[in-house]
Amino acid sequence: MVQAGGVIICVGYILGLLFTAVPWGGVGILLLGILSAVVLRRRYLNLRKIPQKSDNGGMKTKLQSGIGQNTPDPRILLAAGLVGLLASFYFQWRVPVPGAKDISNFVPPGNNSNQEQLVIVRGVVASTPRLTRSQRGQFWLDATQLDEVKKDDGPAGVSKGVTGKLYVTVPILRATGLYPGQQIAITGVLYKPKAAANPGAFDFQKFLKQEGAFAGLTGRQINILDEEQRKWGWWQVRERIVRSQVRGLGIPEGPLVSAMVLGSKAVDLPYDIRDLFVQAGLAHALAASGFQTSLILGVILQLTRRANKGTQLILGSLGLIIFLSLTGFQPAVLRAVIMGFAALVGLALKRKVKQFGSLVMAATLLLLFNPLWIWDLGFQLSFLATLGLIVTVPPIVQRLGWLPPAIASLIAVPLAATIWTLPLQLFVFGVVPSYSLLLNIISTPLISVLSIGGIISALAALAWPAGGSFLAGFLQYPSDWLINLVGFFSKLPGNSLAVGSISPWQMLALYTIILLVVWVRWWRQRWWFASCIALGLVLIPVWHSANNLFRITVLAAGEEPVLVIQDRGTVTLINSGDEGTGRYTILPFLQQQGVNQVDWAIATEFQEHENSGWLEVMQRLPIKSFFSYPPKPENVLETQVIQQELQKRQAIFQPLTVGQAITAGPVVAQLVNNQLPILQLQVQGQNWLLVGNMKLKEIQQLVQSGALARPQVLWCVPESLKDLVLALQPQVAIASSANLEPKVLSELSQSQTKLFFTGRDGAIQWTPNSNFEAFIQATESKSSVL
To answer: Are 485 and 554 in the same domain?
Structure first.
């Protein structure tokens, strides 16, 4: 009962942290604890009043006869509720906020490319540089001093002592050779991170806040302040292992094996391989955690099986500490290592350790150290997957008793982990890797061989790098087979199914069903019924949306008008922007909306940008019909590449001429002018006008000639906003940026036109039953409720 009481209190603490997402969530946990204690107390008193005959003919209560002995003490439930309340206060206390001297307080307001203020930031490198997707070096810097670069027409700024963590990106050659603990000075431009401007987009501001940082620095030049000999650090050991394995296996096999041993966060794994594994549902293979910990402990205990328990405890603990230091103290690894320590202590004391209690205790210790980890996705997935292995694998293996034990276990482990992590994945990503379970079963032997071989090679590399490279060479074929296997599954039709991001309440309902199946016998016997309910909770909203939703979304995509029109399950995409827009704006939005194909695509060139965003979209989603207005001469070759890709996928490609109207689902589109340019859309009885950069004289000529009819909705660049609004008087005007003179904004505010700026308001969405809505404002409103 003591152990059960401790687990209940730990669960209360974890729930208290989780319910910080809800206003007064801690109070709710306290009330739940009080209510549970009262109900349990009444049951306790009722049981005492019911007499029973004892074996010797006497009378005894049900409580005395053993009924209720496994029931927790009401005082434990009350204590758990109180701990949950205190956890919510502790979380708020630990939420990082910038201090008075934090470097984010010195970011110039409105810092942009036209008025950049160069600064010199001195500090200590806090992480090993890594390569970003944009081929720049990235690392963390603990800032200590800030100086403004002297301008030709102004006085030099005063040097300031600063604090805080800084997210730094520099040209890759500038970052080469940097190491943690090194003192450097970086010349660059400070900026504050932006929140997500589009649905489904990456929230850079939230990411930095979770890391305790509130500003970034785009570096241009680095000066080394300490030219002394390198100080020893675990980064050198990691570097020695990675270099040895890359030398023996090459790229990408070498970094892949290193990532399976040390974790992808400690290794610069090529992004194409990383994305391949993530899309196929094998991201866990690149995350050092429980599997590697079990392997290390298993090898050590096997080698020391003839030694006494104390020796096994010491050597096992030493192995876990070394492994933890090499991986870089990641939450998932910390969880696995704490559970490993618990197993070692249980072995030394000759006591059986309850895995569930060990998991809850490990999570509580980590969340006491850093309560913010409760919202770390890696920590959440690691905890849920381990919980699934503990409570769900045994019953699955029992139901697969007709199979050989090895095969039953091979199926049960990935199935249990998938059951417990899938609701969270649907909430965050909205995508189901269709072949994930099958791929996990097939690839487990290869992953085991590579992990064991990688650990052996890493140990050898510590003593003799050439020997580590030689041993790593034996993993050439298994690593190639694994990459080819993942690549094969990723190319299968329907390799990932986008169902759209589910709501928090859907996720909670799914986990409630899972818990009922685990805890309640009636539900456990009817697991198929529970599975049908779970599927209905996910698929019925998807079906309803696909058959009823009509929505137009103007994405925040810089100076390019990018529109997504959803019409009862069909999707029309107008423009794609550059490669970054396709990868970081369009695809995440379509994925979050549960879109698995684009029915109609319309390509125009508004700002003479490249159209490589289409190639990004086509790599992930099929396009059924593609309409292209005449491209600029410099982009003809790119258009031909797009056409070839469409032909490979047997999609319809139709070149259009200026003035030619087309019907793409609910949209009737016509490019009025290609040189200015102007695209006219008729949607649901509304006239939309997308206008590029135009001069006042050109606008007046077009209005006088009648070429520009008054639209209900206008999209244009900021430079033409005032003239077009005054000339056309639309009901709604959307521009990419709000960087206008105050006088112009004042004049526009006096008009009847409602103004939106995607650079300020984020994506703009419209449905027939509601007004235009700004994404950032809607997100803030939802955050204030939750």
So the answer is: no
Q: 564 with 676, same domain? A: yes
What distance in Å separates the CA atoms of residue 592 and residue 499, rounded to the nearest whole number?
Answer: 8
Q: pLDDT exceeding 90 applies to what percent of the chain?
A: 25
Where does the pLDDT of residue 229 fall: very low under 50, low under 70, confident under 90, or very high at 90 and above?
low
101 Cβ contact partners less than 8 Å away, ≥ 6 residues apart: 160, 161, 162, 163, 164
Domain boundary among 479, 496, 513: 496
3-state SS assignment for residue 499: coil
Residue type present at position 610: E
Domain limits at 463? 237-376+442-496
- Give pLDDT tens digits for 624-657: 999 888 776 666 777 788 888 888 888 888 888 8
pLDDT tens profile 347-372: 877 777 788 888 999 999 999 999 99
Residues 649 and 600 in one domain: yes
- At 22, phi and psi to the nearest 5? -115, 135
| Radius of gyration for the alpha carbons in the chain, expressed in angstroms and rounded | 30
Q: How confident is the model at residue 51 (pLDDT cuts 50, 70, 90)?
A: low
Let me know: does 419 contact 446? Beta carbons within 8 Å: no
For residue 199, being part of any structural domain is answered with yes
Mean pLDDT of 504-517: 92
Do 264 and 150 belong to one domain? no
Helix (H, G, I), strand (E, B) or coil at 560: coil
Compute how many other C-beta atoms are within 10 angstroms of the C-beta atom of residue 132: 12
Residues 732 and 767 in one domain: yes
Does 49 reside within a domain? yes
For residues 579, 585, 590 and 592, what is the CA-based torsion angle, rounded to 10 degrees? 140
135 shares its domain with 79: no
The CATH code of the domain that includes 199 is: 2.40.50.140
Which residues are paired to 161 by β-bridges? 145
Q: What is the pLDDT of residues 683-703, one digit of tens each?
A: 888 899 888 777 667 777 777
pLDDT of residue 63: 46
pLDDT attached to residue 684 = 85
- Give the residue from 514, 531, 546 where a domain finishes: 546
Which tens digits make up the pLDDT trace of 449-472? Answer: 998 898 889 889 988 989 999 999
How many angstroms from the chain centroid is the CA of residue 671? 38
Residues 6+ apart with CB under 8 A from 30: 81, 82, 84, 85
Determine the Cα–Cα distance for residues 592 and 2; give it in Å rounded to an integer: 45
pLDDT for 533: 94
- Residue 143 and residue 57 share a domain: no
Q: Is the pLDDT of residue 565 over 80?
A: yes
In a domain, 419, yes or no: no
CA distance 659 to 680: 10
- The pTM assigned to this predicted structure is 0.86
Would you say 612 and 643 are in contact if contact means Cβ atoms under 8 Å apart? Answer: no
Phi, psi angles (nearest 5°) of residue 112:
-135, 180
Place of tokens 């998991």: 359
- Is the domain of 510 the same as that of 556? no
Confidence of residue 599 (pLDDT cuts 50, 70, 90): very high
Q: Is residue 431 part of a domain?
A: no
Q: Mean pLDDT across the chain, nearest whole number?
A: 84
Question: How many distinct structural domains can be found in the chain?
Answer: 5
| DSSP for 141-209, written as a single string | EEEEEEEEPPPTTSPPPPPEE-BSEEEEEEEHHHHTT--TT-EEEEEEEEE------STT---HHHHHH
